[in-house]
Design a protein that fits this description.
Blueprint (H helix, E strand, L loop, with lengths): L1 E2 L6 E2 L2 H8 L7 E2 L2 E10 L11 E10 L2 E7 H6 L1 E2 L4 E4 L4 E4 L1 E3 L11 H7 L4 H10 L6 H10 L3 H17 L2 E7 L6 H17 L3 E9 L4 H4 L5 H18 L5 E6 L6 H13 L3 E6 L7 H8 L3 E4 L5 H9 L3 E4 L1 H6 L8 H6 L4 E3 L12 H12 L3 H8 L1 H5 L17 E4 L6 H4 L6 E6 L2 E4 L4
Parallel strand pairs: 3-7, 4-8, 4-9, 10-11, 11-12, 12-13, 13-14, 14-15, 15-16, 16-17
Antiparallel strand pairs: 1-2, 4-5, 5-6, 9-18, 18-19, 19-20
């Protein structure tokens, strides 16, 4: 076998590539778009000796919103009707699935830039005192709750749209967006309404998650409301409204020390499941209190963070087919004192996804940067990081129609202006994206 493109690629015989990557059609299929001559097409469908399904001099054919052929350029071209199709010559470039960012807090008001800047050189208690001197009374989630509550749907939609445009420019074609900065019925519904608007006013697919259990609201902290009363509001008011108005697909809970207990999380997630919302959970970020065990018990779609998760529990998550979502940029942004153990997850064969955790405390819009940190600081291989950012992210959202370049899948594709895919994690801070295709339509650059 011949080595190509760098130390991690192995060239398979052409017949083998066609067999694993392409359906040969009896009749030529008329297509709308053909990407051809790519130095590498990364299907993210592994085969023996080919961890990311790399095809040399590859092509992808698209009809409507779907992929209809993938394989070596000559084979694809001879099996489709490209008359009238738009041709994208990707010579010397790399073609990959669009990124699926499966954990974000995309919709929020204001900025915590002063808090972030102070925390670079001060401990948290000192930060709070310093900020009080300049009139900022709250930090963390509750600070953003206050700012988010003060903004209109229109203003929140506009600021989130700017962030999502940047994500698209960096190759993200599907994003999950949580509520959680409202912490009241009206304000949580407002954020979920913004998610609905985002789904219709720009090309990136937005999947919505209800996270009314992100924290307890200021009324609880100030003594004007009990924890049990807020639980009642979540279970008997918020969840029914969210389900009735079809505002979310998932129900999430921040289950950790000083947040929601395991019993509280179970009650919320079970209520969400009865209402048709699939369970996800923020687990073990600051302490292992049983959140990951709960995720395994409930067969949650994903368990996210996992900084303190024990190896035995990781095996339980694997057996329960719970996807582990890890976020290296969040650990970096908050200077986490207990980084997650990615290799423990990867080495036992657990499904792992990477995500930005875009939020006021971790303002990052590039999945490429996430991959770079995952590789350099958490010992992901480039292949593992790519799969975790595409097909892994799709699995963390329960999606099987994207994340890989396979026949029948959504034509969510990015083209990188780099000679080999390892350059994506090698060229730190660089945006390699030249073209983004969403549902078969070129959306970056807009003029193509």
């Amino acid at each position: 076998m011949q080595r190509v493109g760098g130390p991690c690629f192995v060239s398979l015989p052409p017949t083998r590539c066609v067999k694993i990557s392409m359906i040969i059609m009896k009749e030529q299929k008329k297509i709308d778009l053909l990407i051809t001559n790519a130095a590498q097409v990364l299907t993210c469908m592994p085969s023996p000796g080919n961890a990311i399904g790399c095809i040399e001099n590859g092509a992808v054919a698209i009809a409507g919103e779907r992929i209809v052929a993938v394989g070596p350029s000559r084979e694809v071209f001879s099996n489709v009707d490209a008359s009238g199709a738009k041709i994208l010559d990707a010579a010397g470039k790399v073609v990959a699935p669009g990124f699926v960012d499966c954990h974000t807090h995309l919709v929020f008001g204001g900025s915590r830039v002063l808090e972030y800047a102070k925390r670079l050189t001060h401990d948290l208690d000192d930060v709070k005192e310093e900020l009080r001197k300049i009139g900022i009374q709250e930090t963390g989630i509750l600070a953003t709750v206050k700012m988010t509550r003060s903004e209109s749907v229109e203003k929140l939609t506009n600021s989130a749209s700017q962030r999502i445009r940047q994500m698209l420019q960096h190759g993200t074609t599907t994003v999950e967006s949580k509520s959680g900065y409202g912490l009241s019925l009206v304000e949580e519904l407002k954020i979920l309404d913004v998610n609905r608007r985002l789904q219709t006013n720009q090309p990136v697919d937005v999947l919505s998650t209800f996270l009314g259990a992100h924290a307890f609201p200021p009324d609880v902290k100030q003594g004007g409301m009990t924890r049990e009363r807020y639980m009642d509001i979540i279970i008997n008011e918020m969840i029914p409204h969210v389900a009735e108005q079809c505002l979310a697909e998932f129900c999430d809970v921040f289950c950790d020390k000083d947040y929601f207990s395991v019993n509280e999380a179970r009650r919320i997630l079970e209520a969400g499941r009865i209402a048709g919302l699939k369970p996800k959970i923020h687990a073990d970020e600051y302490k292992a209190i049983g959140a990951s065990e709960l995720a395994a018990e409930l067969h949650a779609v994903s368990a996210d963070h996992l900084n303190h998760t024990k190896c035995a529990t990781l095996k339980r998550l694997k057996d329960a087919k719970v996807v582990g979502v890890v976020m290296p940029m969040l650990d970096f942004a908050v200077r986490h004192d207990h980084p997650f153990d990615a290799r423990a997850m990867l080495d036992i064969g657990m499904d792992v996804a990477l995500a930005t955790d875009l939020c006021p405390g971790c303002w990052v819009e590039s999945m490429q940067l996430v991959m770079q940190f995952a590789c350099r600081l958490y010992r992901f291989s480039p292949e593992e990081a790519l799969c975790a950012s595409t097909v892994g992210g799709a699995r963390a959202l329960g999606l099987d129609d994207r994340g890989t370049l396979t026949v029948g899948n959504m034509a969510d594709i990015q083209i990188w202006n780099i000679p080999t895919f390892e350059d994506l994690v090698y060229r730190l801070g660089n945006n390699a994206v030249e073209v983004v295709i969403k549902r078969g339509r070129v959306v970056v650059p807009a003029q193509l």
